[in-house]
Specification:
The protein has 284 residues and is of the alpha/beta class. The chain has nine helices and twelve strands. Bound molecules: iron/sulfur cluster.
Length: 284
Amino acid sequence: MGKIIVGKQAGFCFGVERALKIALESREKQKGPVYILGSLIHNPRVVSDLEKRGIKTIHDLNSAERGGVLLIRSHGAGPQIFKEAEKLGLKVIDATCPFVKQEQNLAKELLRDGYQVVVVGDPEHPEVQAVVESVSGCALVINPLNIELLNKEDFRPKVGVVCQTTQKQENLNRVVGVVLPLIKELKLYNTICNATVQRQSEAYELAEKSDILLVVGGKNSANTRKLAEIGTSMIPTYHIESIEEINPHWFRGKEIIGVTAGASTPQVQISEVVNWLKANLQEV
Ligand code: SF4
């Protein structure tokens, strides 16, 4: 007998929903090919659904046909991409999440005001790379997982910080705690997105109440992986993309099953998991 608790915040955030809407509207309005540079969101199912609707994901601008439409995904892109796309005769539609745009603008403002720009986040993440490009590469990226390597020589006296929108608050706090004693002045913009904060605190609450946690969403989604990390630090947690990955043995002896999902997971994917649980485990 098990009880299923589904997180109220689970699933698409405002930025992802907006980007998808823009993509589908563009497809309807445009006659020519529609491309997205990089996956619109980090969810393979959504990406393949978009392909079926005629919205092609590309990883190189040169593979787009002249006259086509290029969508910029919610993670944003650096100014060079906008320029190159125009040069190649593509019409650019910008679906960058407004919160990511704000992060880019704040980084530019810090640079303009003479601060050394620091971006706290994963240097490999496209959002972080786009922020760095928006200040022409003049930024130091600090990965919260590698802060023990930082020293005074890495910094100028005036440092301005922005943060990848999907970072955990404690990661940003940790970086600030290390950097602050090394410098004279710190200007901090906490650009962690509220949607992320809400999902992460709900993941803590769910893990507290549950015996096992299922986190649904793309394995390549940073915000989904963070939810799984939170769960794993507290109870047995499984990050799954589909019901095919579920192993019924996980639920042996477990009474309360928590289900949550990242900001890039569509409702249909969450419902499939919940329906599987309802069909295969007896609910209280
Ligand atoms: S998580 Fe926040 S910043 Fe990222 S796309 Fe969603 S709303 Fe925008």
